[in-house]
Amino acid sequence: MSETSPAIEVSALCKRYGEYEAVRGLDITVRRGEVFGLLGPNGAGKTTTVEILEGYRARTSGDVSVLGHDPASRSIELRRRIGVVLQSGGIYSHITPREALAHWASFYPHPREVGEVLALAGLEPKADVRSRRLSGGELRRLDFALALVGDPELMFLDEPTTGFDPEARRAAWETVRSLRDLGKTILLTTHYLEEAQALADRVAIVKDGRVLAVGAPRELGVGAAHYRVAYRESGGELVERETGDPTTLLHELTGAALARGERLEELSVERPSLEDVYLELTANA
Ligand SMILES: Nc1ncnc2c1ncn2[C@@H]1O[C@H](COP(=O)(O)OP(=O)(O)OP(=O)(O)O)[C@@H](O)[C@H]1O
Ligand SMILES: [Mg+2]
Fold first, then answer.
1. Cα separation, 99 vs 196, whole angstroms
2. Picking from 171-180, 181-190, 270-279, which range would have the lowest pLDDT averaged per residue?
3. Is 8-220 a domain of CATH 3.40.50.300?
4. Which residue's CA is the closest to the ligand 1 atom numbered 5?
5. What's the CA-to-centroid distance between 48 and ligand 1, angstroms?
């Protein structure tokens, strides 16, 4: 397959659990070298979709291609080219992070150095501690480290930073950025919308097993009625207004103030954040 073909293509994906349809005709395309964020409320079908792409769950119907392979075939070649942070790990209670990483690295043709990955994940002080003695956040760091150690070209990170302290989260962001700079492709799910805004080239907002919107985090906000304009008139209370057309509103407000010979104090305009757009889309769907 060519280098320009997408890393992941999903079309009309459906997944039933008995009678329940968790994924209902989902389409996404992830380009090579991009960080793609899958966002959506609890139960939206994100983990189901990601685990189908990883080859961990079987789909009911639809077409799926991951690096040119059907993940349902569970090919060894594909396994060696992907790295995974599962939403719930917890398989390695008696071994140490160093042992777990060395073991996992052995499945990959060109793994990273274990010591380097321990440092990247902030696990050096705990490298030789049995994992049942690690804290929740430290275990999550180990999950993240396990996804990195094989140095795969495609990574699936399902809520990778849940439970991380703020410093660890920033460090993980730096790591994800450096992976992107190396040309890796990353599919990320997160409930931290500032994380998606900081990392993702594009995001898909998913609800009830369908995609509601796809685009760059900045583009998704365009056209949303959520620009916030705030100002104070002649020493009065701070007024906050929402508008989809900040140009016109500012023109009216500033025109009226100037006509009175006044200035608007503390004037500010705030773009809709990804969180605003997310809340609006998922509430209306
Ligand atoms: N093994 C399963 N058997 C039956 N139902 C399941 C199974 N796994 C998931 N579901 C249901 O499918 C729906 C989607 O679950 P999924 O784990 O994909 O959601 P999610 O978007 O990852 O949510 P979260 O943000 O909470 O992680 C949920 O309603 C869940 O209860
Ligand atoms: Mg999930």
1. 32
2. 270-279
3. yes
4. 17
5. 6
Q: In which band, very low, low, confident or very high, does the pLDDT at 92 lie, cut at 50, 70 and 90? A: low
Pocket of ligand 1 (CB under 6 A): 17, 20, 22, 40, 42-48, 87
Distance CA 127, CA 142 (A): 10
Is the pLDDT score of 284 beyond 90? no
Pocket probe mutation, ligand 1, options 21, 47, 51, 190, max atoms within 8 Å of Cβ: 47
Find out whether 28 and 188 touch, Cβ atoms under 8 Å: no
* Closest among 269, 217, 264 to 248, alpha carbons compared: 269
Buried b (16+ CB within 10 A) or exposed e, 158-183: bbbbbbbeeebbebbbebbeebbeee
Closest CA to 152 of 115, 113, 111, 199: 111
Which atom from ligand 1 is nearest to the alpha carbon of 41?
25
